[in-house]
Amino acid sequence: MPFSDPNSAQNPATGLVAPHGWGTNVDASFNFLRGAKAGCHLTSVVGTAITTDTVLPWATELYDVNGCHDNVTNNSRITVPSGWAGLWFIGASIRCTQSGTSTPFTIKLVVNATTTICQSVSVGVSLFENQHACETIYVLAAGDYVETWITNGTARSTAVASRFYAHWLHSGV
Amino acid sequence: MPVVTYVDPDSIHTPSSGGIAPASWFTTHESNFRSITGRVACKIYASTTQDFNPSANSNITLGSVDFNNGMTTSTANTIIVPTSYGGKYLINANARLLNAEAGTWTVTLEIRVNGTAVLVEQFISNSGNYTTIACSTVQSLAVADAITLAITTGGSFPSDSDTEVTGSYPSLSAFWLSA
């Protein structure tokens, strides 16, 4: 685990000398706080057809720390790695081609294929090419995965500049 | 709040087991923690309206500082990643369009890095007056990367359109999350 209680190495009484190992433990915990955290940033698969409840694939990583994503296997998912349960910042920005028909267009962030944790609905501008964003902070357990689901009544497809990202914020809530 | 750079405590002193560490060794630990509690962060915003003619492609002037902990320099309208703070950043930007009457046009709000490279963008089309456009992301940035905010337009974008200055927009902000 990234954090280790320094007092588990030794618990110096007031007035006594703390051993070097105690300070080293403090430094290690500090470097965990400052160091790289689990998270990833994905870019779109251009041209993915979107109809009703389409789960978008993400096949390109700008970065992936601690293995949150696989470009091939279950590439629709950002998955919480072991040891990184806690509070996460999650967001997506999806750009879609125009449909020519005004139908509601919804982007959703869905946990474990069941729970919608954030959604953004567009109605009036949904027939044109547009970009739709959705972001939230949510508590996730190790193994939980988040996907981007699109609901749209008229055939469209993803365009360039779509993004999906997540970053671990902290462990305790 | 000053920006604190990490210093390895053992570069100050490496006490042997059972030995006594000097006060400076513990002071270094304490100083390092200040770099976590006082993270680098910055928000800049516009204080004047700006015209955006059709096919404009230009940075937004963000000449005012809302808050700044070590991320701006004398370079106007720019947020710069300081020494020791490369890593993952939460970045946010927004703007509102004035006199952008409905028509056949497009607007893209772009968060750029080091010139014209686009980190993230928000694209809208055929909207109307007072349209608010915003985007945010988590991005990996290196030391000295310079972040700016730009607007590009297309189609029959109204020639008298401006970015409206009211409240907190247009603005650009960044917050260091981790190495």
Please tell me about this protein's structure.
The complex is a heterodimer of chains A (173) and B (179). By secondary structure, chain A is mainly beta. Chain A has one domain (28-170): Jelly Rolls. Chain A is built from 2 helices and 12 strands. Chain A has helices at 6-9, 20-34, and strands at 39-43, 49-50, 54-55, 60-65, 78-79, 86-96, 105-111, 115-122, 130-140, 145-152, 156-157, 163-170. In chain A, the strands form 3 sheets. Chain A has a 5-stranded antiparallel β-sheet with strand order 4-1-12-6-9, with no helix packed on it. In chain A, strands 3, 5, 7, 8 and 10 form a 5-stranded antiparallel β-sheet that branches. Chain A starts with 5 loop residues before the first helix and ends with a strand. The mean pLDDT of chain A is 83. Chain B is built from 1 helix and 12 strands, in the order H-E-E-E-E-E-E-E-E-E-E-E-E. The two termini of chain B are 20 Å apart. In chain B, the strands form 2 sheets. In chain B, strands 1, 2, 4, 6, 9, 11 and 12 form a 7-stranded antiparallel β-sheet that branches. In chain B, a hairpin with a 3-residue loop joins strand 7 (105-113) and strand 8. Chain B is 8% helix and 44% strand. The longest helix of chain B is centred in the N-terminal third of the chain and has 15 residues, at 23-37. Chain B is elongated. The mean pLDDT of chain B is 81. By secondary structure, chain B is mainly beta. Classes of the chains: A mainly beta (173), B mainly beta (179). The A-B interface holds A 17-21, 23-24, 26-27, 30-31, 33-37, 39, 41, 62-63, 89, 91, 93, 95, 98, 125, 128-131, 133, 135, 161, 163, 165-167, 169 and B 6, 8-10, 14-21, 25-26, 29, 32-33, 35-36, 87-88, 90, 106, 118, 120-127, 134-140, 177-179.
